[in-house]
Amino acid sequence: MAEDSVNDGYEPPAPLPRKVPPSRLEIIRTVLRNPLELWGDPSYTLPWIETRFFGRTTIIVNDPALIRHVLVDNAGNYPMDVVRQLVLRPILRDGLLTAEGNVWKRSRKAMAPVFTPRHAWGFARQMLEKSEEFAARYVSADIHGSTHDISTDMTELTYQILSETLFSGELTSESSDVAADVDALLHRMGRIDPLDMLAAPTWLPRLTRIGGQRVLEKFRKLVRDTMERRRAAIARDPATAPRDFLTLLLEIEGPDGLTTEEIEDNILTFIGAGHETTARALGWTLYCIAHLPEFREKMEAEIDEVIASGADPVTWADRMPHVRAAFEEALRLYPPAPSINRRALEDDRFVAADGKVLDIRKGATILIMPWTLHRHKLHWDRPRVCIGATFALQEAVIALAVLMHRFRFTPKAGRRPWPVQKLTVQPAGGLPMLVTPRDRS
């Protein structure tokens, strides 16, 4: 599906590398508009680049061994960069995505049992049911189909799956509102403010985030109300309370486990970031596949055969290699975390395999860019592997199989979505596509 793996000339939408370095003013404008448009040829070709952004030493890293050094071998010297925390902590506080040190270790250990492969397999039937329920909304379209914003639709679908699987359907809210609210939250709060780039004091209000406070409070109230209802259910009869993610978190609430605030933060993390990342990848998958009819037909044949066999949905990810490959390629092209920021606590030195030496000074910002790395085809093991990877892959394969078994998705003529970096890589203007029933006769 990638530009380098097909021969029909299709190139998924992405900014071209800059040929001329941007001025300071251009940097500010580009970061506020779309940071993906900031990077020039060196960011896609060199192992690392040392530069200065607004008085700060910044090292853009593309070398896998150096990435491992920063994220694994000497991770204690490289906590999250202050700018990243300024953006994310107001939203997620001590959720798994933003927590560090002992708080992160405690949260990760507490939640790990829910996301083991064996536990995730138990969600397959619910994922299938929710995907089929969602697909039914397209059935009402006439034989010529109707246009839908697939980006919004996938956000609604993954929210419904998240609510049903991890919260037993009790995370009640109108899913269509959630799609709009998640977008508003990430658009208004999940981006860098000009004051962040200028290293302004943290007590100065960031005007770009003020507008998102109402939506954030709406989400937090939803979470608190859901927690209270579940606490009451557990108090009435622990044996009949659902054995899901929410109950597990509440059972470890206390001085030796997670605080009430940490539980709230982690639930919000999964609402605001967990399902949204899968939704974006699903949308990009359907869009890119629509431009590759031969590969799409292979996917459809594979899907039809597996569904016709009555195979358990737990096995679909293994029995649908083309579907799985398409989704994973969408993750490569449009990574959920387009940038990873770290800060050096102390001076450090890295020696590359070819003998080149990089001296890293205390206070330097380390910028790791999966967006550029994935176009270098460099691979490495990350130390903080996504806790929900098995869950998300299974969810994606099932959802894609259900939707592509019944429908064809065709991009709206004259509309080419443009990837924009917010908290995740999102399509500016959505993904308007014509959804038509498939003729499988």
Give the SSE layout.
Blueprint: H1 24-33, H2 41-45, E1 48-53, E2 56-61, H3 64-73, H4 82-92, H5 101-111, H6 117-121, H7 124-139, E3 146-149, H8 150-167, H9 175-188, H10 194-197, H11 207-210, H12 213-236, H13 245-251, H14 260-289, H15 293-308, H16 316-319, H17 321-333, E4 340-343, E5 348-351, E6 357-360, E7 365-368, H18 370-376, H19 389-406, E8 407-411, E9 418-421, E10 425-428, E11 432-437
Parallel strand pairs: 2-7
Antiparallel strand pairs: 1-2, 3-11, 4-7, 5-6, 8-11, 9-10
Keyword list:
441 residues, alpha+beta, Uridine Diphospho-n-acetylenolpyruvylglucosamine Reductase, domain 2, Cytochrome p450, 2 domains, 4-stranded mixed beta sheet, 3-stranded antiparallel beta sheet, 19 helices, 11 strands, 51% helix, globular, disordered N terminus
Give a short summary of the structure.
The chain is of the alpha+beta class and 441 residues long. The protein contains 19 helices and 11 strands.
